[in-house]
Amino acid sequence: MDTISSFCFAKPIGATNAPGFHAAPVIALDTALPLMHIFVHFPTIRKLMMKTPPSWLALWDKSLEGYLHLRTMLGQQIRDILADPSTLSNAPHPIIYHSLLGIKDPIDDIGSINKPLISRPISTSDLDEEAFLLVFAGSDTGGNVLSSGLIRILDNPRVHQRLKQELQEAWPSLENKPRYEDLEKLPYLRAVVKESLRMNHAVVNPMTRVVPKGGASIGGHFVPEGTTVGMSNCFVHWNETLFSPDARVFRPERWLEPEAENLDSWLVSFGKGPRSCLGINLGNCELYLAFANIFRKFDLRLDGFSATDLKWRDVYLPLHIGSDMNIFAAPSIA
């Protein structure tokens, strides 16, 4: 959440500095996550909740106080920008409002004015919706892939050792930090990232689409125009024909085999086509940097938890259930 709030709004919320890592906004999102099914299937309830004063929500559920803080922070930023767009010149880097409002990028050497991403006039509620969408989409998705991937790596000594060895060879001195561009060239790290994305799926609930005019042929069947269709990423990622053998087994080596390039088109964690995730590059950057830093800088082992304990239920995203994921960690001596 620190990454997405810094990148999109230039206002990090300081989640990683919270005592015990119990950051109120993170807890608030975790509390709200089980409501996603209600919001998806009953949009009127979502709209009512968005119009409900945050202080009322906090009275209803104290764990939503972090939501109040986040909404207040973003709302104030939006109001300040709409009142005086020149305040964007104080941002340390381009943020989402430069593009949404078509305001000149202060770091743009060309000096041209951006074309607004939304053609109609943008209201405060429009910007509020966009901001919260980015926070929700950019937090739990990457966090889930990192946590579940971490457990699966540590639960497999062979994978763990091979990853550590590659990182130690490519990053011999901790003082000389590699760039993302260097890390994404490491074959086994790349395989680990892809397999972690495949096994977590990102979004597990079917992403609905409406069949365009004229209808379409889907899976050999004609579907008339206007029909709402969708398919879960799980059915692709766990397909034994595509990811054989053992599609439900965490095996990074599958991405290093001769036919591995053919698998890339079936990795749909970020979606595909014109409606694919806007944050795919940022998401990949986070995963490479996080996995590399964690496994290069620390010696880790599981504490009473294994990959078989990774159970989740579908609340649009995979919501992990059960005991906490506990890990012993010590600074790496190499």
TrEMBL record:
Q: Where is the signal peptide?
A: none
InterPro entries tied to this protein: Cyt_P450 (IPR001128), Cyt_P450_CS (IPR017972), Cyt_P450_E_grp-I (IPR002401), Cyt_P450_sf (IPR036396), Cytochrome_P450_monoxygenase (IPR050121)
Q: Which GO terms describe its molecular function?
A: heme binding; iron ion binding; monooxygenase activity; oxidoreductase activity, acting on paired donors, with incorporation or reduction of molecular oxygen
Associated pathway:
Secondary metabolite biosynthesis
Q: Which cofactor does it need?
A: heme
Task: Please provide the record's keywords in A-Z order.
Answer: Heme, Iron, Metal-binding, Monooxygenase, Oxidoreductase
Residues recorded as binding heme, renumbered to this chain, are: 277
CDD domains assigned to the protein according to its UniProt record, in alphabetical order: CYP58-like (cd11062)
Note the superkingdom of the native organism.
Eukaryota
Report the family membership.
Belongs to the cytochrome P450 family.
Q: Any idea what this protein is called?
A: Uncharacterized protein
